[in-house]
Amino acid sequence: MTTAIAPAPESEHEPTPTKIDEPSKVGEIPQWKLMLLRFRRSKLAVASVVVLIFLYLAAIFAPFLSPNDPASVNQDFKYAKPSQLTLNGGPGMCRVTQEVDPINIKTVYKTDCNNAIPIHFFGKGFEYKVLGIIPTDRHLMTVDEGRLLLFGADSNGRDIFSRTIYGARVSMTIGLLGVAIATILGVIIGTISGYAGGRTDNVIQRFIEVIMSIPTLPLWATMAAVMPQDLSVTNRYFLMTIILSLVTWTGLARQMRGKVMAYSASDYVAAARSAGSSHMRIITTHLVPNATSHIVAVSMLQVPATILAETSLSFLGIGMLDPAISWGVLLRDASKLDVLQQYPWILIPGLAVILTITCFQLLGDGIRDAVDPYS
């Protein structure tokens, strides 16, 4: 009699074959995304980005936000204090009456909020062109009588609020443009110095040391003072940008030299040389791209220094000059102590300088921490 032998059951512990059709994506986070995640950890840096975006948008749409023409002179409002606003019966501006103090020999302004002047939103005012293209006369806030002076008026009766917004166009853009030029110079000269080495490196480094040994402010002042006084506002703006950039490139050049010298000793650069890559290809493909994160961090930290330099030179009267509008030009009225004591609101543009520089410094710190591989 034949007995059928049943097949042995499969072991429950037998390993199940693993599918390897799709490669694992674990650890494949791009470098830029990793930097973004690190940057978002800094709440102050993120808040600074929001504030700076708001400031640049305000500079772009300065004519729309300005209730008065920033160049309009009216001696009836000389050193007028900021307008007092009221919500009694809707948004309005308290009426202002002008009197002369016979004792102190100065103009005194008295406010009356019981009969306020209504504020119109999107009302008509001075004409301008949106982005220099579309003509219009609409403004965010206007009044039918008097002048709406949110920050008060200067010695010529000009609106400080409107001039502060317009001044951001010069002070905030001259920092970016100047740093952009300085970054290009620093990257090119620093890369040549670090890659070429030898006598070329020695000559470039001695030249950089000579420039860095000269005190910055006197050097800026000398270069700005030799500019002709009859230059147009546009020409003076570009010359000031070039002057500021010619001094600030040295620090980045020395740092770029060190980076390039370190990268040149790497295995991948040696492999590129063995493969017959040209010097230009090695520089543009391997050296400069690897230093991009460091370049961005250093450049961002240099922007507030450039803005402060332009403000200082304009404040001293050797930078941007009237009729140009910049924060340094606006602060020239605050150079007299007696005027500052009586009319402290002329110092308000200085708050815009402090806010902008602080935001750029916090942003630069956030970017520096984000690009640091050991953070």
UniProtKB/TrEMBL annotation:
<keyword id="KW-1133">Transmembrane helix</keyword>
<feature type="transmembrane region" description="Helical">
    <location>
        <begin position="233"/>
        <end position="252"/>
    </location>
</feature>
<comment type="similarity">
    <text>Belongs to the binding-protein-dependent transport system permease family.</text>
</comment>
<keyword id="KW-0812">Transmembrane</keyword>
<dbReference type="GO" id="GO:0055085">
    <property type="term" value="P:transmembrane transport"/>
</dbReference>
<feature type="compositionally biased region" description="Basic and acidic residues">
    <location>
        <begin position="10"/>
        <end position="24"/>
    </location>
</feature>
<dbReference type="GO" id="GO:0005886">
    <property type="term" value="C:plasma membrane"/>
</dbReference>
<feature type="transmembrane region" description="Helical">
    <location>
        <begin position="343"/>
        <end position="363"/>
    </location>
</feature>
<feature type="transmembrane region" description="Helical">
    <location>
        <begin position="174"/>
        <end position="195"/>
    </location>
</feature>
<feature type="region of interest" description="Disordered">
    <location>
        <begin position="1"/>
        <end position="24"/>
    </location>
</feature>
<feature type="domain" description="ABC transmembrane type-1">
    <location>
        <begin position="168"/>
        <end position="364"/>
    </location>
</feature>
<keyword id="KW-0472">Membrane</keyword>
<dbReference type="InterPro" id="IPR000515">
    <property type="entry name" value="MetI-like"/>
</dbReference>
<dbReference type="Pfam" id="PF00528">
    <property type="entry name" value="BPD_transp_1"/>
</dbReference>
<dbReference type="InterPro" id="IPR025966">
    <property type="entry name" value="OppC_N"/>
</dbReference>
<keyword id="KW-0813">Transport</keyword>
<dbReference type="InterPro" id="IPR035906">
    <property type="entry name" value="MetI-like_sf"/>
</dbReference>
<feature type="transmembrane region" description="Helical">
    <location>
        <begin position="44"/>
        <end position="65"/>
    </location>
</feature>
<protein>
    <submittedName>
        <fullName>Peptide/nickel transport system permease protein</fullName>
    </submittedName>
</protein>
<dbReference type="Pfam" id="PF12911">
    <property type="entry name" value="OppC_N"/>
</dbReference>
<feature type="transmembrane region" description="Helical">
    <location>
        <begin position="207"/>
        <end position="227"/>
    </location>
</feature>
